[in-house]
Amino acid sequence: MLTRRLIQWLPAFILLISGVMAMDHSNQIILAPTSVANNENADATDTAVVADQSQESTSNNVYISGDLLCNDDDCYPLLFEPSSEWQIVKPEQRLPAGLDIRVNLETGLKEAKLGEGNMVTNNNNKEKEDTNNAAEMIEETSNMVKKDESAVNNNYEFSEQFVAIRGFLNKGQYPEAAGQLEDIMEFAHDYKQGYKIATREFDLLQSVALNESIPINVRELDTRVIVACIRNNPPVVEYIEQNYPNFVRDIFNNINEVKKVTDDVQLLVKRFINILTVLIDSDPTYIVGVVDFETLRRVFYTIDDKQLKMRILEIVSAFIDRVHHEDIAPVMKRDGILFVIPQIQDWVKEFSRYVKDADIEEDHLRKFFNTLYNLKTDFGKDIKVDTPFLNWLINQVEERKAHLANGEEPRDPEQDEFDRKLINSRHLVFGNEMADSIKNFHDEL
Ligand SMILES: *[C@@H]1O[C@H](CO)[C@@H](O)[C@H](O)[C@H]1NC(C)=O
C-alpha cells in the first residue's frame, strides 16, 4: 500500500520540488536524510528517498529564461521593476532591497513600490546616494552586502549590540542578553535594518533560537527578532532559504523535542510557528514529511490559541494548494496529499470550522475556502464536509449574490471573481454533499 502510494506520489513530488530547483535554490535540501534517519518513522524515511531522487528533475511550471520568469501563459522580468506606484509582485519575482512592501488585503496579492528614501538613518553617505537612484540601488544592494561581509571589522549600526549579546550569552548573563535583544526588536521590523540584521547575525539568531541550554525567555525574544526580520521582507526570506536551508527542518525537530508544554514553552512554539508560516508560505516545498504534519497536528490540538491555529491552517493550506495546482491527474494529487497527510479529514474539519468563524478576515476566509474547494475537487466523496459548513455556504451564497448585484462602482474584480466561485461551488463542488445532507435530513424525519 505504502509502496504503491509512494510510486504514484513520486511524479507529483518531482513537480512540486522542481519549481524551486528552477529558482536556483540549488543548495536547498528539502528534507535532510540524516535528520530523518534518526527518526523512527518509516514513512519519513521513504519521503527522504523521494526527495533525493527528485533533485535531478528539471521540469517545472515557472522557469527562468534569461532575465525573465516564464510560466505557461507569459513571461515577466525576473527582477521586480519598482516605481513610485504600488505594483503587484508576480510569483517568484526577486525584489531589490529598500522597497516598501505590502499585502493588499482586498486582493491578497503582494505589492511593492519604491521606498520613501528616508529609511536609512546612519551616516553612510554612499547609501544615501543609493536611495536617490533606484536603478543603481538595485545593482548596488548585492554588492553592498558582499563588501560589508568582507570588511575587516564588519562594523555596522548594530555590531556593538551583537558583540554585547555574544558576550552576555558566553558569561551566562541572560537578563542582560534579553535586554539587548529587546532593544534590537524595533529596528528588526524596519525593511532595511531588518535585512542588515538578518544577513549579518543569522548564525547567532538561529543558534540561540534552537539552543535548549539557553533560557526560554531569551530564546523567545530571539525568535521575535527573527519574526520581525522576515515578516514583509522577501529579501530576508530569500537570504534564509539560500543560506540556511535546514532552518525549517531544525525548527520542526526542536518542536518535536518538547516534552512538557508549559506556558513559556507555548509562547516559544508560537513564535516558531510564526517563522514557519512565513518561510513555508514563501516556499511550500520546505514541508514534505508525514512527521511535519504530525508535528503541526500535535501543536494544533495541544495549544489552545486561535491565532496559532490559524497560522497552522495557513501552513497546511499552502501545501495542499501547491499540490492542487500541479499539472497532474486529480487521483495523483489525492494520493500525494494522503501520503503525507493521512489525517486529511481532520484538517477538513478544522478548515470548515474556522472558515465560518465570525471574526475571520476575508483573506483567511478565501484561503481556507479555496483549500476546501481544492480538496473537494481532488478527493470527491473521499472527504466530507459537515452540515454546519453547508449551512454557512448557503448563507455566504446569498450574501455574495447580493454583493455582486449591488451595482457599486468601482468593482474589485478579485472580490467579484471569488464571490462567483463561491456561489458556483455550492452546486458544482459541494453539490453532492448538499444532496446527501438533505437526504439524511429527510431520513431522520
Ligand atoms: C548553547 O548555549 C550554551 C550556553 O550559552 C553554550 O555553552 C553552548 O555552546 C551552546 N550550544 C550551541 C550548539 O550553540
UniProtKB/TrEMBL annotation:
Q: Which Gene Ontology CC terms are recorded?
A: endoplasmic reticulum
Signal peptide (UniProt feature, chain positions): 1-22
Q: Which GO terms describe its biological process?
A: protein transport
Give the matching InterPro entries: ARM-like, Sil1_fungi
Show the Gene3D superfamilies listed in the entry. Leucine-rich Repeat Variant
GO molecular function (one):
adenyl-nucleotide exchange factor activity
Domain of life, per lineage: Eukaryota
Which UniProt keywords are given for this protein, alphabetically ordered?
Answer: Endoplasmic reticulum, Protein transport, Signal, Translocation, Transport
Relate the assembly described in the record: Interacts with KAR2.
The entry sums up its family as follows: Belongs to the SIL1 family.
Query: What is the official name of this protein in its record?
Result: Nucleotide exchange factor SIL1
Q: Which organism is it from?
A: Maudiozyma barnettii
Lineage here is: Eukaryota, Fungi, Dikarya, Ascomycota, Saccharomycotina
